[in-house]
Write a structure and sequence with these properties.
Two copies of one chain form a homodimer. Chain A is an alpha/beta fold and 342 residues long. In chain A, the strands form two sheets. A six-stranded parallel β-sheet of chain A has the order 2-1-3-4-5-11, with helices on both faces. In chain A, strands 7-6-8-9-10-12 form a six-stranded mixed β-sheet, with helices on both faces. Chain A is elongated. In chain A, α1 packs across α3 and α8 packs parallel to α9. Chain A has 13 helices and twelve strands. Chain A folds into three domains: 43 residues, 434 Repressor (Amino-terminal Domain) (Orthogonal Bundle); 133 residues, Rossmann fold (3-Layer(aba) Sandwich), CATH 3.40.50; 133 residues, Response regulator (Rossmann fold, 3-Layer(aba) Sandwich). Chain A binds a DNA duplex (16 and 16 nucleotides) through α2 and α4.
DNA sequence: TTGTAAGCGTTATCAT
DNA sequence: ATGATAACGCTTACAA
């Protein structure tokens, strides 16, 4: 920015005092006469002075900036997390610089570089679907750069994580389907390498077993991209094939559930009468589709807020807390709508 | 960030050369022996050197950072714009710092301050619903800070704007309804002070007039918040009241259309047979609801890309182009789905 | 109560 | 081909 912004130098010149006096007066340091303070502040106001955060950052080796790395803003869930992050960050005088990876590993490494070059004080990360190697993060953790992972968490030892209890969320969803009388429940699963995928899968299987050990039917359909087209195709195939068919679907994602719903409708299968359906994430559209979709709601804003609070704690303390004291698991909320009630 | 990042000083010390030599070698300046260049680069690599963008920013009075101000990331439309912005920005070596106003005027002024403090080189802005006074922007424009407004554009003279042709978008949508045989079309309108609202309203009225001047029916329902609850209530009232009722609705937004759809369904009114429905924005859910919603699609990513390209142009040229040469209006795309086809 | 000067990491200018 | 130095805007010992 080249606009002739006023600096403390300008104020100092104007008043014939030294730079340090101005600096101290603006910061309300002790040992400055009320008179000088007043004059400095007036002049600052008049010249429309704004402290230069860049200079500050260089001087203090702190940028008061948090880097946020997410797969994609268009995911409703992530956009709610961002809101939570910004809320807490700004309230504490921190800026947020946001980068999307577009689910690409290479992009993830590149935005990470950008963030480091910009001297972020800490990082909030939800990594890409492609990311299987976490060295780019572990290196930084070893250097004691504060990092909090949220939603998608890595399987590395000293990571600080904020997630929802995906196991329990899935467990509750499937148990609900069972209680509604569905017995042949299939699971439309997500990208394999993500912990959330594994957790939801485990919750699904566990619910089946716990409810009635004699239930023999289970089916896991891999839907790696997780978008509605893929799900649409897969579900269509399942119901067109001869043989035993599910009477309910639990999808790892509302998008996948929406695809499934369209597939079922296109085959003339009635929801929830013939096939029950539960999704995951409570996207905006879930309550608007027909029939309204039952889903597991994740507290997005709360995840963002919690992760940011923890990060702020890590950045401002020298003594490290134990990982156990910092990692947090939040509860999900099962929202029962028409698609699973018969 | 306090992690002992290597600086050019460290490299210089290691090789017993001066700072300037290192700086020049890294930048491939002429007048440095190939040998030194190689050695410097090797050492940089080995020490994991990363240029400090903050120092650079201070030195060059350029931050290579673009500030983006939007109402809310959770709006699907804005999230697509963001993707477009990031794409172009990163490709040109610029960072993006993103702030939401949450549709609040005060918040808008405060994030603007933050951005200025952080020495952004330029600004991409879509202002809040509450913003009626543009002084905070005009002041900066007068100081020659490059600003490009997108989607929501201010009525000020020297602004550079990127919008879609909302008039035409609305015009096409309403004309389509007329062609399908609907004759009593009502418009669910948005926040009054936005240009987009006025344009869509005008397009609606103009289409009615142009199609058949004898059409007497028109109805504009103000829906200032624009969310689906409000729309739901308003539409329900309209259809429950005695007297003449519309046979089609053109909503300024898919969310409002979704609310209308739910209202109609709850009253047992069939879409598209009894009442036709067209929305605006082509949100993800529009194709997934029942019946699929006809809508006017805005090229979100393209808006972001275009605005960013223009901004980059403004930032890198000293001679100012004429406003007319820089402001851009993009075309919308009418997507016809079942909700308006009878 | 106020001023001086060093330094954060980098580059541009002017030597050598 | 390389080095020394000032400067970007600010804070903070240390001096006065």
């Amino acid at each position: 920015m080249k606009l002739g912004q006023a600096t403390i130098k300008d104020i100092a010149k104007e008043l014939n005092v030294s730079l340090s006096t101005v600096s101290r007066a603006l910061k309300n340091y002790p040992g400055i006469s009320e008179d000088t303070k007043r004059k400095v502040k007036e002049t600052a106001e008049r010249l429309n002075y704004r402290p230069n955060a860049v200079a500050l950052s260089l001087r203090q080796s702190r940028s008061f900036t948090i880097g946020v790395i997410i797969p994609e803003v268009v995911h409703f869930f992530f956009s709610t997390v961002i809101s939570g992050i910004e809320e807490i960050a700004y309230a504490n005088g921190y800026n947020v610089i946001l980068c999307q990876t577009n689910e690409k590993y290479e992009r993830e490494k590149s935005v990470l570089d950008t963030m480091l070059a910009n001297q972020v004080d800490g990082l909030l990360v939800s990594f890409s679907k492609e990311t299987k190697d976490f060295e780019h993060f572990t290196k930084l953790i070893a250097l004691e750069l504060p990092i909090v992972f949220f939603d998608r968490i890595p399987e590395i030892d000293d990571a600080v994580n904020v997630t929802v209890n995906d196991f329990q969320g899935a467990y509750n969803a499937v148990t609900h389907l069972l209680q509604e009388g569905y017995r042949k429940i299939a699971h439309i699963s997500g990208p394999e390498n993500l912990t959330i995928t594994k957790q939801r899968k485990a919750g699904y299987l566990s619910a089946l077993k716990d409810f009635d050990p004699s239930i023999a039917y289970s089916l896991i359909v891999e839907c790696p991209s997780g978008n509605e087209e893929e799900s649409f195709q897969l579900v269509k195939e399942i119901f067109q094939q001869p043989g035993e068919k599910p009477d309910a679907l639990f999808a790892h994602h509302d998008m996948a559930a929406a695809g499934a719903m369209m597939a079922l409708k296109s085959l003339g299968i009635r929801i929830p009468d013939e096939v029950g359906l539960v999704g995951y994430s409570n996207w905006q559209f879930s309550s608007m589709i027909d029939p309204p979709l039952s889903t597991v709601s994740q507290p997005g804003a709360c995840i963002g807020e919690t992760a940011t609070k923890i990060l702020l704690g890590m950045m401002n303390k020298t003594g490290n807390l134990e990982k156990e004291q910092r990692s947090v698991v939040l509860d999900t909320d099962l929202i029962i709508r028409k698609s699973s009630k018969r």
